[in-house]
Amino acid sequence: METLNILYFAWVREAIGKDGEQIEHPGAEMRIIDLIAMLKEKGAGYAEAFANPEKLRAAIDHAFVPLDCVLGHASELALFPPVTGG
Amino acid sequence: MIEFRVGADDFDAADLIARLEALGGGAVASFTGIVRGDDGLVSMRLDHYPAMTSAQISTLIDKAMERWPLLGVAVIHRVGLLSPGDRIVFVGTASRHRAAALEACGYLIDWLKTSAPFWKKEVFADGTARWVQARAEDDAARDRWG
C-alpha cells in the first residue's frame, strides 16, 4: 500500500493537534485542494485548520507547490500558513 | 566560504563578518535581524520545517552565487524561543566590489523571508499569543529581484 506522510506546521498544527499523520495515498491524480476538503471532514480541529484554503500553502517532497497541484507519487505533503521567517 | 546553519544557538556576527573580510575581496555586506519588543512582546517562538529549510536555504545561496560574483556567503537562522533584543537571522556576503555584496545580501534576506519555511509566534505581556501574518510588503521586496 502506497502511503502519504502529511505534515502540519504553525497554526495548522495547533488546530489539528498533531504534527502530522500517515494516510493511505489517495492517488496520483488527487489535487491537494481536494485532499484538504476531505481532511476537513475528519473533525473540528481539521475543520478549523482548513476553513479558508486560501490561507494555506503546501509543499510536496520539500518543494512549494500551488494547492491545485496533483499529488503524483509524492511521499510527503506539508500544509502550513504563508511563511514568516527572517 | 559557504556557511549556513539553522538552529537554536546564538551566533557571533562579528566573527562571521571577520571571516568574510578575510576572503580577500574589497567588500563585505551583512544583515542582522533582531527581535523587536513592540506592543509588549515578551517572547517569540520560531518553528520550521527542518528538511525543507535546509534545502531552500542551500538553493537560495546557489542562486545568489550564480547571479553575483561572491567570494563567500553566510546565512544563519535561529529557531526556538527568543526574547526582545535577541538575534534571529544573519546574512553576510563577500565580493570584490560593493554592489555585488550589497545586492546579494538584500536578495538573500528578501528571499529568505518569503521562501524558507519558518513561522513566528509572538507572546505578549498580557498573556496573549498570535502567529505572525505574512506581509504583502515582504512579497513585494522579494519580487523586485525579478
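The CA atoms of residues 41 and 122 of chain B lie 7 Å apart.
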